[in-house]
Design goal:
The protein is α+β, with helices and mostly antiparallel strands and 218 residues long. The protein has one domain: 3-Layer(aba) Sandwich (Aminopeptidase). The chain is built from 5 helices and 8 strands. The chain has helices spanning 52-59, 75-87, 134-149, 164-173, 205-216; strands at residues 36-39, 42-46, 91-97, 102-112, 117-125, 154-160, 176-186, 192-201. It has an 8-stranded mixed β-sheet with strand order 1-2-3-4-5-6-8-7. The termini are far apart.
Length: 218
Amino acid sequence: MITKEFVVTEFVPAVDERPDDTPWPPMKWPIGDGVVLSGGAVSLSRFAPSDAEDLFGALDHDAVWAHVKGRPKSPAELATAFTARAAKGDLIWVVRLNDGTVAGTTSYLDVVPEAARLEIGWTTYTPAVWGGRVNPSAKFLLLQYAFEELGAGRVQLKTDIRNQRSQRAIARLGARYEGVLRRYQPRADGTMRDTVMFSIIAEEWPSVSSGLQDRLNP
């Protein structure tokens, strides 16, 4: 019989990477209703119930919801779910191509103004735009607005450990891998998801911004 011996090794504490940190002001929040972000391949505007039909049509693919909970069964169900999320504090954006076609959605969520942090998540696109300029264009606009207009100090992004496509897409933005939160939340099928965490902080934004602009404007 083979047994495994559990060995406890000495823990090496993390080291403060910003020992000379200075006070950071609260982030500006909330955002005005009329804000539209435009650039590159897309424009982003705040979700309204009138967007539900086009957005449902863009996202009504099995592959889109493979790693995302809460697939709506109709435009009305999508509108209800998104309105409920907005009421809880999420700022939901509709992503459109330059010709006006709805390509998907993304959000600011888990916003903590006093800590100057937020998350970019709930990002889903029609499969026709996967792997192209839409996601980096949208993420650049959201990151730029968060750091340069809202005064964010930290923007985080996370994804299901099983969603390797999403992990690669986040890493290609220039976000830093922070680790895995084990058994973090339930999936749609009831299994418990491990969540892969990434972040970008204000000190890194100039370099990340430059890299994204080079990528979008080769």
